[in-house]
Amino acid sequence: MTDKKDAFFFACEKCNFKCSKNSNFLKHLSTRRHQILTNDLQKNTTTEFKCSCGRNYKHRQSLHKHQKDCKILKTNEVLVSEPSANQIEKLTNLVFDVVKQNQELQKQVLELSKEKMVVTNSNNNNTTNNNKFNLNFFLNEQCKDAMNIMDFVKSLTLQLSDLETVGKIGYAEGISKVFVNGLKELDVFKRPIHCSDLKRETLYVKDEGIWEKENEENTKIKYAIKHIAHKNVQQISEWQQENPGYTDPESTVSEEYMKIISHSMGGFTEEEDETNYNKIIKNVAKEVVIQK
Where does the C2H2-type domain lie (predicted)? Predict the structure, then answer.
């Protein structure tokens, strides 16, 4: 590490330090720089043996002893081990069983999805015969000239009396009355809505020239209800002009006005809105049940 080239010259090759006095050289040996550089050199000359788990050992024997009990090393060996033929066979059989069960389930769903509609008709002699009702023929042939649902809504002409009725009997019953009265004015085959199963409230709606079964959320019917309710609300300004006394809080007209405002807006929560929709849909379904 150090070389003494003559009686008055001292040098540290590691630190590139030179001096002519022994006392200065001894001071240099105690400096932090000299200790760091010389310690790194000693570290680099040390051979380390490392396990895959991250632990290091100075001796190969210590590493070998550790690896016998290393849990991480054993876990890795398990993870990379090849599956046995028995395991592959079990897995294959399991896959086949799942596929078979899925096929059987699909078959059951297909059978349940088939609709069979049988109606009973009585003749003059009270003899009962069972006949199949062709829903597709009824909708696409007999009702081919029916109105689209939104065309029906646009055709409705509401009166101030409809607005007042909603204020008296409530949103659900009032809007139901407007909806049902509009349907009653149409021939059965012109109506945009038909109900094939009143118990389940199965509805078929004509929209954009196509008859389709209404979805579980009753999206098209609810959309129509909202538009009818909106047409009703638009009459409020006209009603105010016809009844100027509504501004007097002590008058009966003002009381009637407050009821109209309260009921015409529908529910105050989503739950109340859903309840109102269900009531209206039930009332409409009763009016459009198909007479099979």
Answer: 12-34
Model confidence pLDDT, tens digit, residues 32-68:
777 777 765 444 445 567 776 767 777 777 777 777 7
Among the residues of the chain, which ranges form H helices?
22-29, 32-44, 60-69, 71-79, 85-113, 135-137, 149-155, 160-169, 171-184, 219-233, 236-242, 252-264, 270-287
> Where do the domains of the chain lie?
2-77, 134-287
Written as six digits, the tokens of 243 are 């009844």
Farthest-apart Cα atoms in the chain, separation: 145
Q: To the nearest 10°, the Cα dihedral for 27, 29, 31, 32?
A: -170
Contact 150, 224 (CB under 8 A): yes
pTM score: 0.54
What gap in Å lies between CA 194 and CA 138, rounded to an integer?
10
d(CA 207, CA 143): 13
Q: Please, are residues 289 and 226 in contact by the beta-carbon 8 Å criterion?
A: no
What DSSP character marks residue 83?
Answer: P
